[in-house]
Write a structure and sequence with these properties.
- The protein is α/β, with parallel strands linked by helices and about 280 residues long.
- It has two domains: about 150 residues, Rossmann fold (3-Layer(aba) Sandwich); about 120 residues, Hypothetical Protein Tm841, Chain: A,domain 3 (2-Layer Sandwich).
- About 40% of the residues lie in helices and about 25% in strands.
- The protein is built from eleven helices and 13 strands.
- The longest helix has 15 residues.
- The model has no long low-confidence stretch (mean pLDDT about 95).
């Protein structure tokens, strides 16, 4: 089935995967005080994170406008699948839905479906990969939607973060937990709760202990990993992603493992050294 995949900029993909999947990324806008950054390929991520570190106020993000999504829908296939951030974490899903409604008023020969990832970052990447995979063997858009929705409900997303202050400042995590973790050098392992929000999974005193628990958390999901793809997303620290990859390869047998660098939106909350995995 010929189709086009559209995603917001929380869908972390390599340039090679963007080209292979034919994904069009619609960027969110990042805000530090009165300075705005477009979360696209031109964003200097290292500079942005330095600015964020030196800004006392919490970073803000703005979802793409319906007009921005509508521009991305134009495609000769007339079959559009859109992947967005969890609707519980961002207004991006609702913006994309409104865009689809408006677009279909004048383009009734199109098929457009908006997928709520119920997560972010690596999970969105997984969903885009699954859409691409299924589009090669399924001709009916509605059948693909059903299978992808089932797939989304089974995705596991976990985060290992050095710094959770931005999550707390933006209401994504209890600020008391963040303060205690910072004061005691406790590293938190967080995860998507399956309903689109973030939950605390485990904690470790110091990075090394947390890293080991993060690895062990994969087995504790009780899944058949041989039929699953693992996406590892990292913020700037590629060596951490590579180390995690090597440990995973020695312990588990995933069908495939993909490593991607996080963009601006994901990095805003994961921060320097953060790791996000989805499988």
């Amino acid at each position: 089935m010929k189709c086009k995949i559209v995603a917001d900029s929380s869908c972390d993909l390599t340039e090679e995967l963007i080209q292979k999947l034919g994904v069009e990324l619609v960027p969110l806008t990042l805000q530090l005080n009165d300075k705005s950054y477009v979360d696209d390929r031109n964003l200097d991520l290292e500079e942005y994170l330095k600015d964020m570190k030196n800004t006392p106020n919490p970073p803000r993000t703005s979802c793409p406008s319906p007009a921005a999504f509508m521009e991305s829908f134009v495609d000769e296939s007339k079959v559009i699948f859109v992947v967005t951030l969890s609707s519980k974490l961002s207004g991006t899903y609702n913006s994309a839905r409104l865009a689809a409604e408006l677009f279909l008023e004048d383009h009734q020969d199109y098929f457009i479906h908006i997928f709520d990832s119920l997560s972010a970052s690596a999970a969105e990447s997984l969903i885009a990969l699954k859409i691409f995979e299924l589009s090669k063997i399924i001709d009916d858009p509605k059948e693909l939607v059903q299978k992808v929705e089932e797939y989304i409900n089974g995705i596991k997303t976990l985060f290992l973060l050095d710094n959770v202050n931005h999550l707390a400042k933006n209401g994504r995590l209890n600020p008391v937990i963040a303060k205690i973790a910072s004061a005691l050098s406790i590293k938190l392992i967080l995860g998507a709760d399956g309903k689109g929000e973030i939950k605390l999974v485990k904690e470790g005193l110091g990075y090394e202990r947390a890293f080991k628990k993060f690895l062990a958390s994969i087995a504790q999901q009780g899944l058949d990993l041989t039929i699953r793809t693992l996406v590892i997303a990292y913020v700037l620290e590629a060596n951490r992603a590579e180390r995690f990859y090597q440990e995973v390869m020695s312990l588990y047998q995933f069908k495939d493992v993909v490593i991607v660098k996080m963009g601006g939106l994901s990095s805003t909350y994961a921060d320097f050294g953060g790791l996000v995995i989805a499988f």
